[in-house]
Hints:
Blueprint: H1 4-10, H2 12-23, E1 30-34, H3 41-53, H4 67-74, E2 80-83, H5 92-101, E3 111-116, H6 124-135, E4 140-147, H7 155-158, E5 162-165, H8 171-179, H9 188-195, H10 201-210, H11 212-229, H12 234-245, H13 249-270, H14 285-293, H15 296-314, H16 319-329
Parallel strand pairs: 1-4, 1-5, 2-3, 3-4
Helix pairs in contact: 1-2, 3-4, 5-6, 8-9, 11-12, 11-13, 12-16, 13-14, 13-15, 15-16
Amino acid sequence: MKSWEQLREVQPLAGKIMMNSFLKNRVSHAYLIQGTRGTGKKTFATMIAMTIFCPNVNNVEPCQSCHTCKRILSGNHPDVHWIEPEGKSIKTEQIRALQHEFGYRGMESAKKVYIITNAEALTVNASNRILKFLEEPEVETTALLLTDNGQSIIPTIQSRCQILELKPLQQKAFINRLMADNDIAINESQSRLISALTNNISEARTLHEEEKVYEIKDVVYQLIYQLIANYEDRYLFMHQTYLPKIKDKQDQELGLDLMLLAFKDILNFRNQRVEQLLFFQSNDGLLNRAIEQFSEQRLLHILQAILEAKQKLNQNVHPTLVMEQLVLRF
C-alpha cells in the first residue's frame, strides 16, 4: 500500500487535498472519487479509511502495520463497509441494509466509513436513499463514492460531495514499466494498448495473460472493416459476430473501450498525430482506408455515440439494445 506522499507523486492535486484535509482536521463527510480504471480509486479510499481509524497516525500517515490498518486493508474492519454492485446494479435493498447498520454506533469508535464502488451503478431509488443518507447521517460518517464517470452520478449527490479527480498516470512511463516487467512477456504494441485501458500494473498483467483483450480487439477490428467494406450489413454483423463473442458485461465494457481507442486512432491518424496511436499500427492498411471513409465530423459523432452507449450500459439498459442502437448511429 502506498503512503500519502507516494500517492501525491502520482495524483498531486487529489493527494494534496486529502493531506491538507487531515492536517487541518477538515475531512468532508462525503467524497466523490472519480477517475478512469487503474487510477487508484480503491487505493485512495482505503488510505482515507486507514487515516481516519489508525491509532498510530504519524502526521497524516497511517502506520499500515497495526491491527486496525491490517483489517481495513483486508476488508474486515467492522466500521468500514464496502458496497459493490450485485449483478449489474447497486440496489435499494443494499442501501437500506447500510442505513440500518449505520443506525448503530460504531463497534470500535464513534466513526463509520462506507465505500461505494462503481457508484454509477446505483439505481434511481438507491441514489435517492444515498442522497437522504448524505443529508442526515445517523453517526459520524464518511462516505466515499467511487466512479469511472462522475457525470453519471445524479447532480444532487455530486453537490453534496467533495470531488476528487484522479488523473491517468503518465502513459509512456507505464508502457516502459510494463515492458520491463519480467513477470510478463509483452511487446510494445500490446503495452500501448493495455496502457490505454488501465494504469494498474496488476490489472495490466491480468488483461495480458488472460488474452481476452486481444480477442475482443480482433472483433472490434472486424467491426471497423465491416463499416468500411460492407456498411449495409453492419446490423447483421452485430448479431451474428459481435454479440455472440462479447457476452458478459465486463467484456461489453471492454469492447466499447476498445472502440473508443480505435476511432480515436483514426481521428489522430487523420490529423497526423501518428505518435498517439494505441489500437492500430501506423502501417495498417485498414487505418488508411478508414481515414478515407470517415470525415472528422463523423468520427466525432461516432465517439460521442460510443460514450453514450457506455453510459447506457452502466445504467443497465439491455446490452443488445445498446449495441443495436450504437451500430445504427455509425
